Amino acid sequence: MKKQFFFLFVLFSFSTIYSQCNIFFPIISPDGNYIYFSSDIDGGNYQIYRANASDFTNATKLTDISGVDNYYPAVSPDGSLIVFQSGQYDAAAEIYIMNSDGSNLQQLTSNSVYDGYPNFSPDGTKIVFDAWDTSNYPEIFTMNIDGTDRTQLTNLGGADWQSAPIYNPDGSKIYFSKGFNADNHYVMMDLDGTNWVNITDPNTFGYMEWALHFNSTGDKIIFQTSEWVGYNNGTDIVIADSDGSNWEKITSSTSAKYYYAPSFHPINNKVYFCFYWASGSSTWSIHTMNLDGTNDIELSSCENLSIIDLLEKEKFVIFPNPVKDNLMISIDDDFILELYDPSGRILLGSNKKQNSVSHLPSGLYIVVIKNTNNHILGCQKIIKE
What is the pTM of this model? Predict the structure, then answer.
């Protein structure tokens, strides 16, 4: 039976435990109601989540693929399906598809080469993605949404990277980032891989454009660039016409600030992006701002994200509560119990069903229960008498 757990990260006594989590790759559903993202908020690998786009409430964990990180969620045009990359940039990376609520998970690719960064065609029948062919450098491919008819569109060879592809909204072109990984620029091509046209100018080493998205009408694009800060020193966000003209820089990166993976909200004229400041915050969070770059607001971070986990979880009971001497847990399978004080210090780590807490001072504590893959099954506040 599926069970809900509410992780109350707004409590300072619990948020410090997860202060090192990251929240990546925000994308908004076509109706504007949901935001999908990747995070390691549960203490394990990166998984795919969904939340209300307006205020980031009702954040729901959609995947639980153990042992690998899951990135780059993309939403089908009708909002019913999610496709994403499972795995890092290596031969183990594969592409998965699922319903927008996390049900009916299916693996679309299964081979010994990298497959990643998937996006839907506007009619919802195709997926465009980057993948290795005969070398360990990506090219652009398409396939049907059931994984059939895998077709290679680009074939430059050598160390050229063709990556991060996306259809334009009318489905007539594919845009992708071309270069040598540290000097990428965006190119547009026909659906059969011919007629390449530069959308942004070719770059020298250390300058690159990546993570391009369209607005709902298709006349504007948004992407990240290191045009003004150079290699490994931050990125900015630019909005431009769909042909690459009329750049409008809407951020000002200084001191290694990374404005990353931007996307448009389809309705409310806002930009969503993830942010990292190498000289300040040590984690990635999701922000929103106006189209002109004003009113930059942190929408969600580890400290304020509350998770509703709708995946199948183990049933357990922690008792008694309040507790005086021995804290007990009733659970069928193997587990890890961690007990934290209000400052976030871990005071106990155990796989025993009976644990002495008689030595602890009276007060509030947080108990976190994990499975043996280090995935959180739930948490509970307890009072020590």
Answer: 0.77
**Residue-wise burial string across 198-213, b where 16 or more C-beta atoms lie within 10 A, e elsewhere:** ebbeebeeebbbbbbb
Task: Spell out the residues 6+ positions from residue 307 whose beta carbon is closer than 8 angstroms to its own.
Answer: 5, 6, 7, 9, 41, 42, 49, 59, 60, 61
- Calculate the CA 320 to chain-centre distance: 38
Segments forming the whole domain that contains residue 334: 316-384
41-98 pLDDT per residue, tens = 877 789 999 999 988 888 888 998 888 999 999 999 999 999 999 999 999 999 999 9
Dig out the tokens for 113 from the structure: 């080469």
Report how far residue 9's alpha carbon sits from residue 175's, in angstroms, rounded to the nearest whole number.
39
| Domain harbouring 322, CATH code | 2.60.40.10
Whether residues 73 and 220 share a domain: the answer is yes
Q: How many domains does the chain have?
A: 2
CATH of the domain at 263: 2.120.10.30
Residue 1 lies in a domain: no
Q: What is the largest CA-CA distance in the chain?
A: 74
For residue 263, give the 3-state DSSP assignment.
strand
Tokens representing 7 are: 């992780």
**What local confidence, expressed as pLDDT, does residue 308 receive?**
58
Tokens of 81: 């399906």
Task: For residue 265, give the 3-state DSSP assignment.
Answer: coil
Residues of the chain with pLDDT under 50: 1-19, 310-314
Taking only the tens place, the pLDDT of each residue in 251-295 is 999 878 999 999 999 999 899 999 988 776 668 899 999 999 999
